[in-house]
Specification:
The structure holds 2 protein chains of 2 kinds.
Chain A (H helix, E strand, L loop, with lengths): L9 E2 L15 E4 L2 E4 L3 H20 L2 H17 L1 H6 L4 H17 L3 H5 L1 E2 L6 E9 L2 E5 L5 H13 L4 E5 L5 H12 L8 E4 L3 H10 L5 E3 L6 H12 L4 E3 L15 H4 L2 E9 L3
Parallel strand pairs in A: 1-3, 6-7, 6-9, 7-8, 9-10
Antiparallel strand pairs in A: 2-3, 4-5, 5-11
Chain B lengths: L2 H12 L4 H10 L5 H11 L6 H14 E4 L7 H12 L13 E4 L4 H8 L5 E5 L10 H13 L4 E5 L2 H5 L3 H15 L3 E5 L8 H13 L4 E3 L11 H18 L4 E3 L7 H14 L12 E3 L1 H15 L12
Parallel strand pairs in B: 1-2, 1-8, 2-3, 3-4, 4-5, 5-6, 6-7
Helix pairs in contact in B: 3-11, 4-12, 4-13, 5-6, 7-9, 10-11, 11-12
Classes of the chains: A alpha/beta, B alpha/beta.
């Protein structure tokens, strides 16, 4: 009997809940695997998918979003070994799983902490409610590959935003494998979209796109590129998260800042009856 | 012109006089090769149209749009806003051309006419008990006359599909003839509702029937049934208008309607027009898109080409 030939995996993009190749047909090689090299048009398609998903995801109950984030943690737990085999240290995988659980818990608490009744001098109920910003473009940090990625995706989506993530060009395998986890976690298609390839190609398109509401530059190492992206983002007044400072400790308590920066506060005045 | 062509021409004009002649002619049309038509249409959809060619195609497509609203919830305010948009689709860019026409229900025609007066944008109105066409003939004709009197210069009529499918071609033919008379100077577009005709052979027959009866345009659909305009159906209709011009010398326009929502789709249709009937039809007088959401996508793509930045729907009107 002839020797069995192992089936090798092509690491593809994650757009709208599906795993398409790049429309450009290009790929590049990382860790001996073929990875799709996303083009500007893939970025555009991802924004379309993310926009289409906003209504359903932002409209889902906070409780439901929390359950789904917890489900992601469950699925990730089941695939620990796969991430370890890709080179992620075991303690980092653990931290990434715990981070999903931590953010899952915030889903229905954040609106209570950052919204509520305001005292006003008049016969009105005055209520503030935090609402998601919309479509968020994210440039993910390269290291730690898994924990960094989870730490930028989870806080954005837990409040009802949808994201288009430009994964680090050096660590795409972890990103696509995480996409496989997300695809099996009841997360609606389009809430998270992941592009692999050159940041210099996808990020400027996302930063300039008029249908993107915020951009998170955490993973942009080049200061000049970061400034350029910020200028492009100014065209439609996107919210901008500046790059993380060098030596940022991803294992530390993340705090709520990453969630609150991607929220818009809606305040309602309502006349009080007698 | 040769003697045979002249006699063929007079033969065709005689057809409407008897049910038998009409049936013999329509059933004598060659059958449509379904697989071939679908393959050809799919193949024409693979052309790559980029940069300056794309810019030209987008401007042409905008000029070909029949900006349509056919809802029970249409109000004078809504149709006025739509008419204003037809005149100046992109307020931010004066170089953007106006659309071909505005298409509304007869009751809404006066409000649109006010806005469009003096402009080159046509005013189309659906009539003849749109979309089903299931009303007595007097009612359909009164509907048509009212729309024309109110200011419509194009009438979109529906054919009597019940009669067509039952094989009563004469009845369908006569209805188109009298509706054409009721239109006066207004152009008549004949809606075949291809989604209800079931086969490509029927589409070809209905196309010929509408053209023989005097229709100025043949239109695929009302947009009110699940299957609207498709590439293969439009291909069959384009072939029919080409053959009809070859046989009679009269040129008839084509209007696919319903289901065309993206610039990519619109450009596929333009490629198909150019490849099957030629550039004579690449003009708003001879080819139109019945659409509502298509225009915003065309405008977004146009903006992308002029600014280099992908546009978002937040910056275009909702209608």
């Amino acid at each position: 009997m002839s020797e069995r030939v192992a089936v090798r995996k092509t690491y593809k993009l994650f757009i709208g809940g599906k795993f398409p190749r790049s429309e450009s047909g290009r790929s590049y090689i990382v860790q001996d695997a073929n990875v799709a090299l996303a083009s500007r048009k893939d970025a555009r398609d991802a924004v379309v998918a993310a926009r289409a998903a906003v209504k359903g995801w932002a409209g889902a109950t906070a409780y439901n979003r929390g359950q789904i984030l917890y489900r992601v943690a469950e699925m990730l737990e089941g695939r620990r070994d796969q991430f370890v085999a890709l080179g992620a240290p075991a303690d980092e995988v653990d931290a990434a799983i715990d981070r999903w659980v931590w953010y899952a818990g915030w889903a229905d608490k954040l609106p209570q902490v950052y919204g509520g009744a305001n005292p006003v001098a008049g016969p009105y109920f005055n209520l503030s409610a935090p609402e998601p910003t919309g479509v968020v473009a994210v440039v993910a940090p390269g290291a730690p590959a898994l924990l960094g990625l989870v730490s930028v995706i989870a806080p954005a989506i837990v409040t009802g935003n949808t994201v288009v993530v430009a994964a680090s060009p050096d660590a795409p395998l972890v990103a696509v494998t995480l996409a496989e986890v997300l695809a099996t976690s009841d997360l609606p298609g389009g809430v998270v979209n992941i592009l692999t390839g050159r940041i210099s190609e996808t990020a400027p398109t996302l930063a300039a796109h008029m249908d993107v509401n915020a951009i998170d530059l955490t993973g942009v190492a080049d200061a000049e590129l970061a400034a350029d992206l910020e200028v492009r983002a100014a065209e439609n007044l996107k919210r901008v998260l500046r790059p993380a400072p060098a030596g940022h400790d991803w294992f530390a308590d993340p705090g709520v800042a990453r969630m609150t920066v991607l929220l818009e506060t809606k305040t309602v005045w309502h006349p009080k009856g007698v | 012109m040769t003697a045979t062509a002249t006699s063929a021409r007079s033969d065709l004009s005689e057809l409407g006089r008897s049910e038998t002649a009409l049936r013999t002619f329509l059933h004598g049309l060659p059958g449509v090769d379904q697989v071939g038509a679908e393959q050809r249409a799919a193949q024409l959809g693979t052309r790559s149209i980029k940069t300056t060619a794309k810019a030209q195609a987008i401007d042409l497509a905008i000029r070909m749009v029949d900006l349509t609203t056919l809802e029970g919830a249409d109000t004078p305010g809504k149709v006025r806003a739509l008419a204003a948009k037809a005149l100046r689709p992109d307020p931010a860019d004066p170089s953007c051309p106006h659309v071909g026409a505005v298409c509304v229900y007869p009751a809404m025609v006066p409000y649109v006419a006010e806005v469009l007066r003096g402009s080159a944008v046509h005013l189309a109105s659906v009539a003849t008990a749109f979309p089903s066409g299931q009303a007595p003939l007097d009612v359909k004709l009164a509907d048509t006359r009212a729309a024309v009197a109110a200011g419509a210069d194009e009438i979109d009529m529906v054919i009597n599909r019940g009669a067509f499918l039952a094989g009563r071609y004469q009845e369908v033919y006569d209805e188109i003839v009298v509706t054409k008379e009721a239109c006066g100077d207004a152009h008549l577009k004949v809606i075949l509702e291809t989604g209800e005709l079931a086969t490509y052979d029927n589409v070809r027959r209905a196309s010929w029937l509408a053209m023989l009866a005097g229709g100025d345009f043949i239109k695929t659909s009302t947009g009110k049934v699940p299957i609207a305009a498709t590439m293969p159906v439009t291909l069959v209709m384009l072939e029919a208008v080409r053959d009809f011009r070859a046989a009679t010398g009269r040129q008839v326009g084509v209007k696919p309607a319903g289901g065309i929502r993206t610039t990519k789709d619109a450009i596929k249709y333009l490629v198909m027009v150019n490849e099957t009937v030629g550039p004579d039809w690449l003009d708003p007088d001879w080819f139109r898109f019945g659409a509502s959401s298509l225009l915003n996508d065309l405008l977004m793509q146009r903006t992308k080409l002029t600014t280099g930045v992908y546009a978002g729907p937040d910056y275009f009107t909702l209608d």
